[in-house]
Amino acid sequence: MKYKLIVTALLAASLVGCQANPVSGRQQLVLVSEEQAQASSAQAYTQTLSEAQKKGNLSTDATLNNRVRRITDRLIAEAKRMYPPSRDWQWSVAVIDEPTLNAWCMPGGKMAIYTGIVHRLKLTDDEIAQIMGHEIAHALLGHGRERMSRAIAMQGGMQIGSILAGRDISILAPVADIALTLPNSRENESEADRYGVELAARAGFDPRAAVRLWEKMAAASGDGPPQFLSTHPPAGNRIQALTALMPQMMPIYERAR
Questions:
Q1: How far apart are CA 148 and CA 169, in angstroms?
Q2: Does residue 175 contact residue 58 with C-beta atoms inside 8 Å?
Q3: Is the Cβ–Cβ distance between 244 and 207 less than 8 Å?
Q4: What is the pLDDT of residues 84-135, one digit of tens each?
Q5: Are 62 and 81 in contact (CB under 8 A)?
């Protein structure tokens, strides 16, 4: 009986929560509002940075922090043009001093990049822009809300009614934590590639760096893919798809230079 109730709740939610993303036009199942996603993500972000600070893992490298902020400021300016509601986001970026190859952007523009990916891959500014552009695209495309919806489904459909009704946002705090660790789908990764490269090109970063970046990422995978690549499309397919975008993206880049 409990299983049937959960399935019924999920089916009902799918009817209520299906909407077109304003950037890509793709239909998405989202069980939380943008406001709910941003509020719960802000809580998770604060907790993540607090834990990093307690461990001494927030980077104090002023040169690297300024470099990351300079790059992301340019990307944010273009993100606000690509998706005007993001003008009201409380954008923030942190550099976390850990060896992992990772970066992310939560709903509402809360971002982080790890020193491991910068140093191990010897990233150029253009390559950092491709990583952060990709992550910002996830936020603009509502992929965080999709992950939160998956997390809700994993925890059980009995929560869905109150979430859709806008009550008791506190139950979304653990969902945001789970969503931060859940991988994006391959469809979402490919979508973020497409719009991330365009975002970086609009900001005046060389789109060809995307191909170089993923070549480096593939080479760094070693015995297994790093966290950043856990569910990404195969490197060969990804590089081929990115290369195919260059004739479209290079003119954007040339105009922005």
A1: 13
A2: no
A3: no
A4: 999 999 999 999 999 999 999 999 999 999 999 999 999 999 999 999 999 9
A5: no
β-pairing, 18-20 vs 27-29, is antiparallel
User: Which pLDDT belongs to residue 143?
Assistant: 85
Q: Which two tokens stand for residue 174?
A: 């653990």
10 Å CB burial of residue 64 (0-12, 13-18, 19+) is: middle
More confident residue, 63 or 222: 63
**Contact criterion met (CB below 8 Å) for 117 and 103:** yes
The pLDDT tens digits for 126-166 are: 999 999 999 999 999 988 887 777 666 656 554 554 544 45
> At CA 41, angle to CA 7 and CA 110, rounded to 5?
140
Q: At what angle do helices 143-155 and 125-140 cross, to 10 degrees?
A: 60
What is the rounded average pLDDT of the residues 165-175?
50
- The first and second tokens of residue 127, run together, are 């390559």
The whole-model pTM stands at: 0.80
Radius of gyration of the chain from its Cα atoms, rounded to whole angstroms: 18
DSSP 192: H
Q: Tokens representing 92? A: 């923030």
| Cα separation, 25 vs 5, whole angstroms | 31
Q: How far apart are CA 126 and CA 71, in angstroms?
A: 9
